[in-house]
Amino acid sequence: MKDTPDPGPTFPIALPIQLAVNGKRHQLDLDPRASVLDTLRDRLGVMSVKKGCDHGQCGACTVLADGKRVLSCLCLAASYDGADILTAEGLGTVDQLHPMQQAFLDHDGFQCGYCTPGQICSAVGMLDELAQGMPSHVTPDVRKVAELNDAEIRERMSGNLCRCGAYVNIVSAIREVGQGQAASAALPMPVAREVTR
């Protein structure tokens, strides 16, 4: 009688994972190797997230995970258990677009549109990083909050490729939204008034 080799430890075929995607909570049993990108597209039918290179080089799959921009093709879904994932289609509605979505339309910031959802998510995350004072490679003084200018926008968006070459219009769209956010942040907050009856 032959000795059978020890198969080694057994691992679960699927892991229970919970994700909130565009405000809707999902309980899933996933292969531990499943990426956030494949989970969104193949399991949840969220098609705004695009698979471009599948190697983290093009940015087409960019989403916001707990408010931070990530390349979903490089993220294991198991590592994002409990996370809030926001895609471009979750930023606004058809009747009320997110300001970044509207700016991309107004400035014609797309041609074929394949990279656009990732560009929009990256732009929203990038403006938040800028507002938090995170410097970039081109920030002149890392001790100060960077000024929103074209060089900062280009550097911070350099991970998102547009094969059609709509970069000039993408930068214009992001600049408009960023300047609008800066202007609204500079406005004084309304004073709460006591309500009497």
TrEMBL record:
UniProt signal peptide: none
Keywords, alphabetical: Iron, Metal-binding, Oxidoreductase
InterPro entries: 2Fe-2S-bd, 2Fe-2S-bd_dom_sf, 2Fe-2S_ferredoxin-like_sf, 2Fe-2S_ferredoxin-type, 2Fe2S_fd_BS, Aldehyde_Oxdr_Iron-Sulfur, Beta-grasp_dom_sf
2Fe-2S ferredoxin-type domain: residues covered: 15-91
Protein name: Aldehyde dehydrogenase iron-sulfur subunit
Superkingdom of origin organism: Bacteria
Organism: Deinococcus piscis
Alphabetical list of Pfam families matching this protein: Fer2, Fer2_2
SUPFAM superfamilies per UniProt: 2Fe-2S ferredoxin-like, CO dehydrogenase ISP C-domain like
